[in-house]
Amino acid sequence: MAMENTISARPAGFAQSLAVLLPLPLAGAYDYGVPEGMTLEPGDIVRVPLGRREAIGVVWGSASGEVAAGKLKAVKERLDAPPLPEVERRFIDWVAAYTLAPPGMVLRMAMSVPLALAPPEAVIAYARTAATLEALGLRSTPARARVLALLEGGPPLGSAELTREAGVGTSVIKSLLAAGALEARTLPPPRPFARPELERAGVALSEAQAAVAASLRARVGAGFQVTLLDGVTGAGKTEVYFEAIAQALRRGQQALVLLPEIALTEQWLARFARRFGTAPAVWHSDLTQAARRVTWRAVAEGGVEVLVGARSALFLPFPDLGLIVVDEEHDASFKQEEGVIYHARDMAVVRARLGGHAVVLASATPSLETIENVRRGRYHALHLPERHGGASLPEIKLVDMREEAPGRQAWLSERLRQALAETLAAGEQAMLFLNRRGYAPLTLCRTCGHRFKCPQCSAWLVEHRLLGRLQCHHCGYAMSLPRACPACNASGSFAACGPGIERVAEEVRGFLPAARVALLASDTPGGPQAIGELVRRVEARDIDLLIGTQIIAKGHHFPMLTLVGIVDADLGLDGGELRAAERSFQLLSQVAGRAGRELRPGRVLIQTYRPDHPVIAALAAGERESFLAVETRMRREARMPPFSRLAAVILASQDRDEVDRTARRFGRAAPHGAGIEVLGPAEAALALLRGRFRRRLLLKAERGTNLQELITAWLARVEVPASVRVTIDVDPMSFL
To answer: Contact, 383 vs 624, CB < 8 A?
Structure first.
């Protein structure tokens, strides 16, 4: 829908008619009438009737005219909230059109905190009047005297602060107020976030860093530009892009930083505070409702200079955004796989283009899509090829597990065991990486072979021994491990197959009993606060060995960590995923980059049964460019992204026969033509998920093809039963 800056239609009985978009999965905006005396503009947030209830929406433009004037319902009220900026509304429309999601679903991401639409409560403070206690006929008491002395010549104080500082009860304040010795004043609520100190001295930059920082500063304020900040692990990319943030703030604009794992921002926040003297605003799903309300409102009113957040922060209503930074731009966590399916990195580029400002994509292992955009001249690239402060990249050695296999029910080679013992004896720290949560990925009965499987998904239940349960990592289903096999009733016959990080920790404690070991995974109990505390303990050297999943690969800087052991480098190399090799190279490179980040040299031991695999060989040789060249050639020859376009159509239903029939209809109605190919229908890799049977079709087309137009026409040709859910994933990252 095209948006207009003014609304001029004047239907009978109303001052205006207009379209209101509601944050609901509806086909589009609804027409409403504006009563006499009410003036509305696009972006205003309003309350409107919807059936038998009321809903909050946003004025989106002129009415469609499809509803007769006599049938229009009236807008109830305009809320006292900042209007949704014009660039934000264009962004919502763009995302909806690209992802083929209802615009109201995208709007809901931008209006995720309804409580923030009400203005914050005014602050009541108390000031001293000119009247004396004697003139008011009040007896002077020590308590009253302390209150009046505290307010003498000073600013008004709130009740809580006044009673605390004066050491009195609220009754004293009330008596002075009633007598006229104090007066109540209504003050605006205090600013929730302190302003960053722009001229505060940051970390001293090297000559190479300073040159890159100057280039970034020059790009801020020079219109829409995308810059890849490509630097090895430990190159100081964060401190460099801080200079671009400072430049945006000097221009009076806001800055947004997207991180893939907001639970791991403790060190980032500490760096920011050292550079700017205060913490930025933060946005992620674990914030309390009160914090979300304050932050959303402050962003909308321009009271947030810098915000760091997860992918959803991209949809906050920034009125004057001047810079977006996407840190670890290659990370798959930026892709939202449910609801509105979008990639935050790509949508950040769109948001910057619509706003006419700069965006920085930072990574030590950039995605192939970003590298191809640099090659085509669409993005700029700046390089930091060396670590900061004289640190060197770690030495990487392969452990060929075909020749150095550990004993039965063991997972660490003798060489890795010795390296761990040596590192801890030297007073240094180590890290072990295994991308498997829990104790074991599969539990079975030795007697009958029964395997514990999720009843709702095509997945095995993972044993979490520390929690005493079996759990599905796809839907969250969990159960206690039974005493007897449910299939044959045998007791004591369960066998844990394969290792998870809990099992590796158990092995380490067997040969290093004095080591202080901690586990870190995305499901670490206690959430972001517990993870942040664990990171602080590693920094304080209260932990000798950190064992974790991919969450430990992202952005951590531990000066005394000199050894990284990768327990099973072969996990993820195959499996039919388009990006399996690329993701494995990125993940293992990032993990390896945790070692030796300061003056003590680092080393990395990679356990593998496939030392000749291109990913493993490239890691060992430190040849990123040669790996990328091979991967690029393979993608180009296979006509796969970034050299083509993909879109997935996923069908799901609790009725297996119904979803199969619908999938066959989609197959028969599939688009065809030059450069267009449709694969499927076929069972999804996770053929059963949360109790729904799933089928997939994959549309592949040449670059430049309008996938949305093809898919829209395709959907129109197929009758879809109400029991079948259709999901469209444009530019899929996962093929589960």
So the answer is: no
